[in-house]
TrEMBL record:
Gene from which this protein is expressed: PGM2L1
Alpha-D-phosphohexomutase alpha/beta/alpha domain mapped to chain residues: 60-204, 235-339, 350-474
Taxonomic lineage of the native organism: Eukaryota, Metazoa, Chordata, Craniata, Vertebrata
Protein name: Phosphoglucomutase 2-like 1
Region (Disordered): 583-614
CDD domains per record: PGM2
Keyword Phosphoprotein recorded: yes
Organism: Oreochromis niloticus
Statement: the UniProt record of this protein carries the keyword Ligase: no
Coiled-coil stretches noted in the UniProt entry, renumbered to this chain: none
Cellular compartments annotated: Cytoplasm
Length: 614
């Protein structure tokens, strides 16, 4: 066990930790990567005990999107050793679960991330993942080049693989990387698989053999195949099923700009546009090629809005393009902006774009299924912290709507379950600009969403409507849904714990707040503890999720506010929404929606969004 160390560390304690580190360094596995070895040696030489303890005294655990952490030396970071250990655990669990594992194999993909100082790159880590499996005679479908994240779950289903691994940290800062695992159904792993894989990892931490470190094994082993050409062709063929107005697209005067945010998306979005009959979108030249440093943006997350879309908007102005599309670095999310006549640019929130895409997917579905009774066989899904606009659609149009816990792993697994009953999910989303049109892939997909948004915009343009105008039409029909979402960064887990403990014990043990901003709270749902005051048995309908915090308050004025921790970043996120009745012609007053919760875990701690950083 590792002792706790504060700013001042006694000589015996320091010597003890440094001795421990030297022992770890002596373990041959850690010495296999010269860059991470040099990082540890440098920290030891500088006596950086606290940093060493953080790196070497804890391990990563599966969160909302698998493993995600900074690259570098240490057991709580992404590096050669932790990826090898994770893959050994994954192999052991899959062997126990699938009798035919040795014939089904595993799909492995990667994005374009890399870090020179630690010698880590997504491509290298993908090869190491493959090497571990190949060393145990397991077939590996390793993509020969970087791919969008949705290609991995798509390939898992198409190739009937036992599982898939995507090496990516999506839109996280450049220092991070990740290890995202998909189950045989094509959805991200969920409980109990995640916990069982972690247990298997911890049972065998020492690399099995020298072959596990051999990145060249993928070039020599006959069990390694490259699925890129087949999967890309099949994906684009199936993408055509989401295209309904190809002739209109090919003749549309509308121009589009696309940014791939220095990631994988450029070539794939260009190809998707061709499938839909569009000319390729105008690429932002500074951002179309992979760059692991994301050198032209302060933050590689298009969800941050206009401040990170500056180059895209400037190019659109020069080219007279009305719509800007931006995929995040692994191309599973999509941001959209539209030129607003006389008012600059409108950057749509995830909730607003979901209202448009949800409307469009039902509109195009209804064109081919005119009988009202047919709607009983289709679903739309959204995470519980996302807008309730799809619920409003469902009430009026007669189809089904369901909510899930935050994270697309819940949506993907629910789509799979519904498909077994003959039901079809035609649209799903999470408010953090994650959309899925159709059910071909069981994860959010920025590539297909970009093409669908382009077709929707072209169709509306032909009707002399903009995306903005159609959004207002939707609200007038189904009721205004006005939301506000933001976050605060908190890098100190004990502080986060105190904040949520304070909320759960606001007026004594087990007592939640009674008011928010002077408005009465009528219901509280806490999925971390399983409590829901709106239910007769006081038990949450949504599954209990003890691995993170999430509390939802329903206010008397109709506002729903949720506070939760992020599963991928050191953030406390909050979500508020006011849902007006259909036919109400104006949005509610700002003082009902511009909620900035003041959350005090102690007298000294006061978080007031939206003062955040990335």
């Amino acid at each position: 066990p590792c002792p706790h160390h504060g700013d001042e560390t006694s000589a015996p304690e320091s010597a003890s930790v440094i001795s421990m580190v030297r022992g770890v360094m002596g373990f041959h596995a850690v010495l296999q990567n010269q860059w991470t070895r040099a990082q540890v040696e440098s920290l030891v030489g500088a006596g950086r005990v606290d940093d060493l303890s953080r790196r070497l005294c804890s391990r990563m655990s599966f969160g909302t999107a698998g493993l995600r952490a900074p690259m570098g030396a240490g057991f709580n970071r992404i590096n050669d050793l932790t990826v090898i250990q994770s893959t050994q655990g994954l192999y052991s669990y899959l062997c126990r679960y699938f009798a035919d594992f040795s014939s089904r194999g595993v799909v492995v993909g990667f994005d374009t991330r890399g870090q020179e100082e630690s010698g880590c790159s997504s491509h290298r880590l993908a090869k190491l993942t493959a090497a571990v499996l190949l060393s145990r005679d397991v077939p590996v479908h390793l993509f020969s080049s970087f791919v969008p994240t949705p290609y991995v779950p798509y390939a898992v289903k198409k190739l009937r693989a036992a599982a898939g691994v995507m090496i990516t940290a999506s839109h996280n800062p450049k220092e991070d990387n990740g290890y995202k695992v998909y189950w045989c159904n094509g959805a991200q792993i969920a409980s109990p698989h995640d916990k069982e894989i972690l247990r298997c990892i911890e049972e065998q931490l020492e690399p099995w053999s020298a072959s596990c470190w051999d990145v060249g094994l993928v070039d020599r082993c006959s069990l390694r195949t490259d699925p890129l050409t087949q999967i890309n062709s099949c994906y684009m063929d199936e993408l055509a099923s989401l295209c309904f107005h190809r002739d209109l697209n090919s003749s549309s005067p509308l121009k589009f700009v696309h940014s791939s945010f220095h990631g994988v998306g450029h070539a794939f979005v260009q190809q998707a546009f061709r499938v839909f009959g569009f000319p390729p979108p105008i690429a932002v030249p500074e951002q179309k090629d992979p760059d692991p440093n994301f050198s032209s943006v302060r933050c590689p997350n298009p969800e941050e809005g206009e401040s990170v879309l500056e180059l895209s908007l400037l190019l659109a102005e020069r080219e007279n393009a009305r719509v800007v599309l931006a995929t995040d670095p692994d191309a599973d999310r999509l941001a959209v902006a539209e030129k607003s006549d006389g008012c600059g640019w409108k950057v749509f929130t995830g909730n607003e774009m979901a209202a448009l895409l949800g409307w469009w997917m039902f509109f195009t579905w209804k064109e081919n299924h005119p009988e009202p009774a047919d709607a009983q066989s289709i679903y739309m899904l959204a995470t519980t912290v996302s807008s309730k606009i799809l619920q409003a659609f469902a009430r009026i149009e007669g189809f089904h709507f369901e909510e899930t816990l935050p994270g697309f792993k819940w949506i993907g697994n629910r789509i799979h379950e519904l498909s077994k009953t003959g039901s079809r999910v035609i649209f799903s989303f999470e408010e953090s600009i994650g959309f899925l049109c159709g059910d071909t892939v069981l994860d959010k997909d920025g590539v297909s969403s970009a093409a669908v948004v382009a077709e929707m915009a072209a169709y509306l343009h032909n009707k002399n409507l903009s995306l903005i105008q159609q959004l207002h039409n939707i609200y007038q029909t189904y009721g205004y849904h006005v939301s506000k979402t933001s976050y605060v960064v908190c890098n100190d887990p004990p502080t986060i714990q105190r904040i949520f403990s304070r909320i759960r014990n606001f007026d004594g043990s087990g007592s939640y707040p009674k008011t928010c901003g002077g408005v009465q709270i009528v219901h509280v749902r806490d999925v971390t503890t399983g409590y829901d005051s709106s239910q007769p048995d006081l038990r949450s309908v949504l599954p209990v999720s003890r691995s993170s915090h999430m509390i939802t308050f329903t206010l008397k004025n109709g506002v729903v506010a949720t506070l939760r921790t992020s599963g991928t970043e050191p953030k406390i996120k909050y979500y508020t929404e006011f849902c007006a009745a259909p036919g109400q012609r104006s949005a509610p007053r700002n003082d009902r929606t511009e909620l900035s919760p003041r959350l005090s875990s102690t007298d000294e701690t006061d978080f007031q969004p939206p003062s955040h950083s990335c």
